[in-house]
């Protein structure tokens, strides 16, 4: 199947939420309580209960999507994710922390790290682009789908296949509502770091 032909119908769940629906172009999720992805660091707990709607791919790939949500409670989060197993995954998007929605990413290679920054656009609607080329992940975000900013360039373990998709979590509440749209897959640009 062509990369550009993937639709929500081709996706499957890791930790299906109780409430969700799709149309041709849109995925809507209402999260379960205590949904999260995290491995040990600082908090000393292991959570693998977040909602990930994805598809298995083997080839190098770029996925882009629009994310809409009202981030209000601590650790409300939504964005894009690549998942190999409970101990090896990467997620990036908006996460509510320090009293505001922050742009954030987590790389887990046995243990989780976490990095956040100020998001200067409208956190209620933004775009994420994640690219995997061999053993490297490059993630960019945009507030207007025109100008793209680098969020993270990091190594990622090579595997036979990768489960890539969209995720949402709400460790402190249930029914955090997230809408994903404008899903697009493509072959990665030659210069994934500097291409807009």
TrEMBL record:
InterPro entries with a match to the protein in the record: ConA-like_dom_sf, DUF1349, UCP022704
Superkingdom of the organism of origin: Eukaryota
Any one Pfam family match given in the protein's UniProt record, by short name: DUF1349
Name of the protein in its database record: Regulation of enolase protein 1-like
Originating organism: Papilio xuthus
């Amino acid at each position: 199947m062509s990369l550009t032909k993937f639709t929500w119908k081709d996706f499957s769940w890791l930790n299906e939420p109780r409430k969700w629906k799709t149309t041709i172009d849109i995925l809507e999720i209402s999260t379960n309580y205590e949904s999260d992805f995290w491995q040990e660091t600082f908090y000393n707990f292991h959570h693998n209960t977040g909602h990930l709607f994805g598809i298995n791919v083997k080839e190098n790939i770029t996925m882009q999507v629009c994310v809409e949500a009202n981030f209000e409670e601590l650790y409300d989060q939504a964005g894009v994710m690549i998942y190999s197993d409970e101990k090896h995954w990467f997620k990036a998007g908006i996460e509510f922390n320090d009293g505001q929605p922050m742009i954030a990413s987590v790389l887990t290679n046995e243990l989780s790290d976490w990095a956040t920054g100020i998001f200067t656009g409208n956190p209620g609607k933004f775009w994420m682009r994640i690219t995997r080329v061999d053993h490297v992940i490059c993630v960019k975000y945009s507030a207007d789908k025109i100008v793209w900013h680098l969020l993270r360039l990091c190594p990622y373990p090579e595997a036979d296949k990768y489960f890539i998709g969209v995720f949402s979590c709400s460790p402190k509440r249930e029914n955090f509502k997230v809408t994903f749209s404008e899903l697009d897959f493509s072959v990665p640009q030659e210069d994934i770091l500097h291409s807009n």
